[in-house]
């Protein structure tokens, strides 16, 4: 059971899983499911480069994207075709640029590049040979102090809580300075994993992916082949995670991808979710939760049923292309 979010997680899970399990992809937002399906159909229809250009990972133009969309129309439900035609910016920049967070970050990206020393100086980060070189370059070559001040501004609660993220996503922030917290996360983002393999970092810094080999796995040849062969393992369902669990037969699910729901839920709501998972899951259950502000509250009554494996999380972070979360 997986939260759809913007679609990369279920698609990446499918092409990287070691065996062919069914993945139920749920979300309460129909737009997230439509975006997930658009990415799926794009990867099934086009070779790597055209798919990446249409979606916005690589540069393109509106006319080329409109032509690609015409090829996709026959494989999309009519309601999804109408939905995307209501947003012509999809053809200008590609759909991955249109998210609330991406739109907000995009406003500040040019200034951020300038404060760091310009594109040429930032490109030097991608010439580093290892993680330690990346950390040294970030601290000594990039004007990171100026960037820290920009983060204080762009993630000031007054601006960020309604434009960059819904206010609910800040309920566990307390009195901490969001800008400083996110600046430290950004430094980790730039230095904790090999930057040439990190498509998300390249996208944030330059608005497109610099190295085609760094694209998400589901767009690369081997991933596409598996996606083509096994995409019917994905089921898109417009429903909440909790409601799915309330109505499912016990034992149907034994793997849970929870995204960062603990950042958004109160302790009471998160506890309810954990009770549902414990009561409805099968044997040998594994789950993955990501978080920025709160890892979630495990009720005392579930301490024997739920084990938090932080060591496993640390190992996963070493391979993470988006080490912005814990």
List the defining traits of the structure above:
18 helices, three-stranded parallel β-sheet, mainly alpha, two-stranded parallel ribbon, 5 strands
Q: Strands, helices and their partners?
A:
Layout: E1 2-3, H1 8-16, E2 23-27, H2 30-45, H3 48-55, H4 62-72, H5 78-85, H6 89-93, H7 100-116, H8 119-123, H9 131-140, H10 144-154, H11 157-163, H12 178-191, H13 199-206, H14 221-230, E3 234-238, H15 241-247, E4 253-257, H16 261-264, H17 267-280, E5 281-288, H18 310-317
Parallel strand pairs: 1-2, 2-3, 4-5
**Structural shape:** globular
What strand line-up does the widest sheet have?
A: 1-2-3
Between the first and last Cα atoms, what is the distance in angstroms? Answer: 20 Å
* Biggest sheet character: 3 strands, parallel
Count of helical stretches: 18
Content of β-strand = 5-15%
Total number of beta strands: 5
- As a percent range, the share of helical residues equals 40-55%
Calculate the mean pLDDT score and round it. 85
| Spans where pLDDT lies below 50 across 5 or more residues | 162-166
Provide the structure class.
Answer: mainly alpha
The helix-strand sequence is: EHEHHHHHHHHHHHHHEHEHHEH
Supply Rg. 20 Å
Structure in words:
The chain has 326 residues and is mostly helical. Helices cover 53% and strands 8% of the residues. It contains 18 helices and 5 strands. It has helices at residues 8-16, 30-45, 48-55, 62-72, 78-85, 89-93, 100-116, 119-123, 131-140, 144-154, 157-163, 178-191, 199-206, 221-230, 241-247, 261-264, 267-280, 310-317; strands at 2-3, 23-27, 234-238, 253-257, 281-288. The protein has a 3-stranded parallel sheet with strand order 1-2-3, covered by helices on one side. Strands 4-5 form a two-stranded parallel ribbon. Helix 10 (144-154) crosses helix 12. The model is unreliable at 162-166 (pLDDT under 50).
């Amino acid at each position: 059971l997986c939260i759809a979010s913007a679609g990369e997680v279920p698609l990446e899970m499918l092409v990287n899983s070691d065996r062919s399990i069914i993945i139920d992809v749920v979300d309460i937002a129909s737009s997230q499911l439509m975006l997930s399906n658009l990415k799926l159909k794009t990867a099934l229809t086009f070779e790597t480069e055209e798919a990446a250009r249409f979606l916005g990972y690589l540069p393109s133009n509106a006319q080329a994207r409109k032509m690609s969309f015409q090829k996709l129309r026959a494989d999309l439900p009519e309601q999804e075709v109408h939905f995307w035609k209501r947003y012509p910016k999809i053809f200008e920049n590609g759909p991955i640029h249109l998210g609330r967070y991406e739109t907000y970050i995009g406003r500040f990206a040019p200034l951020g590049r300038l404060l760091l020393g310009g594109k040429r100086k930032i490109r030097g980060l991608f010439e580093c040979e290892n993680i330690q070189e990346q950390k040294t370059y970030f601290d000594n070559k990039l004007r990171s102090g100026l960037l820290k001040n920009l983060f204080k501004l762009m993630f000031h609660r007054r601006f960020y809580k309604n434009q960059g993220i819904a206010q609910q996503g800040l309920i566990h922030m307390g009195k901490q300075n969001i800008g400083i917290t996110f600046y430290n996360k950004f430094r980790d983002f730039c230095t904790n994993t090999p930057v040439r393999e990190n498509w998300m970092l390249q996208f944030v810094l330059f608005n497109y992916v610099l190295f085609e080999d760094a694209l998400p796995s589901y767009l690369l040849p081997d991933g596409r082949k598996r996606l083509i062969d096994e995409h019917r393992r994905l089921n898109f369902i417009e429903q909440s995670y909790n409601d799915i669990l309330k109505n499912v037969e016990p034992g149907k699910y034994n793997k849970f991808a929870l995204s960062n729901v603990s950042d958004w839920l109160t302790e009471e709501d998160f506890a309810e979710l954990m009770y549902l998972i414990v009561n409805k899951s099968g044997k040998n259950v594994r789950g993955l939760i990501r978080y920025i502000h709160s890892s979630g509250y495990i009720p005392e009554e579930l301490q024997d049923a739920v084990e938090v494996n932080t060591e496993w999380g640390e190992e996963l972070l070493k391979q993470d292309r988006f080490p912005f979360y814990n």
